[in-house]
């Protein structure tokens, strides 16, 4: 589910099914069992944090038809803190008997760097920063955009599903979404990634069918440093001060590892 460089440049990988973090390449293997909330279910998201980990565990309410949103538990595991913070979870949609992510719905996302974790619920254009004991350090906000869901957004979303499905499925897909309850607004942003200098990269929202792959860069102080445009179909995974590494997918969805140089505009 996750792989990252942390703990003095050691490479760690998280197995969601086993709830286990493994140090890749160590001999003998080093592993950590990650079971949040007193040994319960394994977190859906995990990041390094100080000498421990931070995780997000989704808790869903009893399903009722239509959109729903439970809570998420932000847990500080092995950091010396037993604090569990409840925050809004991912939006889901229940169409009996199927329960899945809500189309164009909000998710709770985290990123960590050293002893700092950034958390966003995508409700509003803001990110909260906590230390490794769960103490709120600051909240960073920026100017929001017009993210109201329009009819052409819904049409583009459905048409994308049809393009990626067998032709005979088109009438069924249109029927499924004819009376679907879409959100009133798109998520305020997407993923969060810390670079190796402590800057937070915040993915800009893209409307369905819209091109672009743009990220805001926020300094540890909360100041906006600027925006970075990345290639289409490129998923950043590791960011240094000079390069971005990640996975790019071609038109056949074949994956390639790319390392890109960051070109910074020089001030006048």
Layout of strands and helices, then pairs:
Elements: E1 2-6, E2 10-15, E3 20-23, E4 30-33, H1 36-39, E5 45-49, E6 52-59, E7 66-77, E8 84-95, E9 98-101, E10 109-113, E11 116-120, E12 126-131, E13 136-141, H2 151-163, H3 170-178, E14 192-194, E15 200-203, E16 214-218, E17 224-229, E18 234-239, E19 243-249, E20 255-261
Antiparallel strand pairs: 1-2, 2-3, 3-4, 5-6, 6-7, 7-8, 8-9, 10-11, 11-12, 12-13, 14-15, 15-16, 16-17, 18-19, 19-20
Detailed description of the structure:
The structure is a single chain. With 268 residues, this protein is mainly beta. The chain has helices at residues 36-39, 151-163, 170-178, and strands at 2-6, 10-15, 20-23, 30-33, 45-49, 52-59, 66-77, 84-95, 98-101, 109-113, 116-120, 126-131, 136-141, 192-194, 200-203, 214-218, 224-229, 234-239, 243-249, 255-261. The protein has a five-stranded antiparallel sheet with strand order 5-6-7-8-9, with no helix packed on it. The chain has a four-stranded antiparallel sheet with strand order 1-2-3-4, with no helix packed on it. It is globular. It starts with a strand and ends in a 7-residue tail after the last strand.
């Amino acid at each position: 589910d996750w792989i990252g460089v942390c703990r003095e440049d050691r490479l760690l990988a998280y197995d969601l099914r086993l709830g286990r973090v493994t140090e890749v390449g160590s001999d003998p293997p080093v592993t950590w069992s990650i079971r949040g909330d007193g040994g319960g279910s394994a977190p859906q998201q995990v990041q390094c944090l100080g000498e421990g980990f931070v995780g997000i565990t989704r808790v869903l309410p009893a399903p009722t038809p239509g959109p729903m949103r439970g809570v998420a538990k932000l847990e500080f595991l092995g950091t010396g803190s037993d604090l569990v913070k409840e925050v809004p979870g991912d939006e889901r949609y229940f169409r009996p008997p199927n329960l899945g992510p809500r189309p164009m719905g909000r998710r709770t996302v985290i990123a960590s760097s050293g002893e700092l974790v950034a958390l966003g619920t995508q409700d509003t254009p803001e990110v909260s920063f906590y230390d490794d004991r769960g103490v709120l350090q600051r909240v960073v906000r920026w100017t929001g955009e017009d993210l109201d869901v329009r009819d052409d957004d819904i049409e583009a979303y459905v048409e994308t599903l049809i393009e990626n499905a067998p032709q005979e499925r088109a009438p069924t897909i249109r029927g499924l979404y004819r009376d679907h309850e879409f959100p009133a607004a798109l998520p305020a942003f997407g993923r969060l990634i810390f670079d190796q200098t402590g800057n937070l990269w915040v993915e800009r929202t893209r409307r369905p069918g819209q091109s672009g792959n743009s990220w805001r860069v926020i300094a540890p102080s909360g100041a906006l440093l600027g925006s970075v445009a990345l290639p289409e179909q490129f998923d950043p995974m590791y960011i240094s001060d000079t390069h971005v590494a990640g996975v790019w997918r071609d038109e056949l969805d074949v994956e390639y590892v790319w390392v890109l140089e960051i070109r910074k505009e020089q001030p006048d």
